[in-house]
Amino acid sequence: MTPKRWFLSFLVGVGLSVSSSSFLRAESPSSAPAALKTLINQIDTAANQQDLKQLMALYGSEFITTDGLNLEPYSTSLTTLWKRYPDLKYTTELLSWDKAGQGWTAETLTTLQGTSQENGRVVQLKGTIKARQTFEDGKLVRQEILGERTELSSGSNPPQVDVKLPEAVRVGQEFDFDVIVKEPLNDDLLGGAAIAETVASDRYLAPATMELQLLQSGGLFKRVKGPDKPEHRWFSAFLVRPDGMTLVTQRVRFEP
Fold first, then answer.
1. For the chain, what are the domain ranges?
2. pLDDT of 7 higher than 70
3. Half-sphere exposure of 15 (CA within 13 A, CB side)
4. 175-184 b/e with 16+ CB inside 10 Å = b?
5. With b meaning 16 or more CB within 10 Å and e meaning fewer, what string describes 185-216?
6. N or C: which end of the chain has fewer CB within 10 A?
7. Strand, helix or coil for residue 15
8. What does the pLDDT read at residue 11?
9. How confident is the model over 241-255, as pLDDT tens digits?
10. Is the pLDDT at 3 greater than 80, yes or no?
11. Architecture of the domain delimited by 8-255
């Protein structure tokens, strides 16, 4: 079985974890300029209305993310995404900001929720993304993903899971990746799979396949060694039983 998934850092570009490289002189949201607050609200409004023309008007022509995604594939794929999740809703919170030249740099936290129909089943999407965004001349020009978590679920009783995964790890360090089913399984069969992928722009819409295996315990438990160089990776776990499935993906930063 190969579940379909979307990485939320592509969907809008904001996430979950707190970066170790947060602003040294970050200002509180209450002191943010009205123009910055308005711009963030306009981006949310255009995305919620799925108005691609209006949304792209708020992005600079040289927009780029630290994952290597630029404006053209971003805008093209948004159209596909909105067709799959026609009720997708975005809510963005400004966490902190700072003056950057003639513009601003802001840390934002975005929550997303939506539903789609996949082979006659309703799929629920929930996610959070935290990002550092740079605005110049009233447009979003650069985006750095600090963290993200995506959860897709389907069925009458999808597994409720608790993910044990660090947000940041030193290069070469070992750590645990555990996804635990919260409720008792009783006599239910549980299948699952786990995978790690290096974050790259060409993987957003073409994630690797995940081959299910019958699990002998109530979750997935992995011991992982980090890469030898700094990078970001997506860690995904897929759990399925007769009356529901859950797919969760979380980003981990590997730092020097």
1. 8-255
2. no
3. 26
4. eebbbbbeee
5. eeeeebbbbbbeeebeeeebbebeebebeebe
6. C
7. strand
8. 47
9. 999 999 999 999 999
10. no
11. Roll (3.10)
Tell me what pLDDT residue 235 has. Answer: 95
Q: Which two tokens stand for residue 6?
A: 């979307």
Tell me the pTM. 0.83
- Beta bridge partners, 233, equal 198, 252
Scanning the structure block, which residue is given the tokens 């971003």? Answer: 74
**Confidence band (pLDDT; 50, 70, 90) for 183?**
confident
DSSP for 54-113, written as a single string: HHHTTEEEEEEETTS-BHHHHHHHHHHHHHH-TT-EEEEEEEEEEEETTEEEEEEEEEEE
Q: What's the burial of 149, exposed, middle or buried (CB within 10 Å: 0-12/13-18/19+)?
A: buried
Contact, 238 vs 193, CB < 8 A?
yes
Coil, strand, or helix at residue 135?
A: strand
